[in-house]
Amino acid sequence: MRNFDLAPLYRATVGFDQIADMMDRVLSTEVAQPTYPPYNIEKLDQDSYRITIAVAGFAADELGIEVKEHALIVTAKKADEDKRTYLHRGIANRAFERRFHLADHVKVTGATHADGMLHIDLVREVPEALKPRRIEITSQKGETVEAKALSAQETV
């Protein structure tokens, strides 16, 4: 296992502690990640995503989706264990918990369950205060630079 000292990152930056925590979490986890249940992450548009999880054998009321502290947590638990005797049990429908860490401003907009697949739709909603905005530049005479440019074009 690799050990990285992230102390210089904390000393030299302000406000990037979430990135450092994420790097620390990724580097400190076990190499053997759980593979059940299989899932896909799709980018549908510039700011929209979809997570699709294979949940064959689970009904919609046996699934749970929760968003807590920038984490999307998907859980599944069978309502009752059947008393069947299997000669071969190749279909895994064991309980699970799958976590996805969400970036800032990523919101879950909905979820659907169809044909053994759970689709979770997400969208990134950047607040107006964080979007780029254009600042007008005024000259010392008080008129704006754009107004001077327009008046120059009108005289040509």
TrEMBL record:
Residues annotated as domain SHSP: 30-140
Keywords carried by this UniProt record: Stress response
InterPro entries the UniProt entry points to: A-crystallin/Hsp20_dom (IPR002068), ACD_IbpA/B (IPR037913), HSP20-like_chaperone (IPR008978)
Pfam name, any one: HSP20
Domain of life according to the entry: Bacteria
Family the entry assigns: Belongs to the small heat shock protein (HSP20) family.
Name listed for the protein in its UniProt record: Heat-shock protein IbpA
Organism: Primorskyibacter flagellatus
